[in-house]
Design brief:
about 120 residues, mainly beta, Immunoglobulin-like, 3-stranded antiparallel β-sheet, 7 strands
Amino acid sequence: PYYVDMNQNLFLQASLHSSDQNLKLFVDRCVASPNSSDFSTLVYELTKSGCASDPTYALFPSPRGDVAQFGFNAFSFLNRFPSVFLRCELVVCRRHDFSSRCYQGCASRFKRNAGS
């Protein structure tokens, strides 16, 4: 556990551990829940489809593509729950593949392929 005060800035970093130097990491979705095993009943969205849902959420530039750095202000769920748990979904792409999800940034809508 990591203990912080209310509204304190919380900084996080995700790292990709791979021998392949041509990979890039992208934060696609992060949600918070007061329950470590239930991320569907009572959740708070920090980011969705790479877009900030929380006004305090910020994605920070990283000197390396295999590292994603972001942060937000600490909060609680209605002061009824002592802990907040995070679940983040990250996307791994090929570096310099500008058509990949990692280079699209905030995507509030995705186009679907209708097929034949």
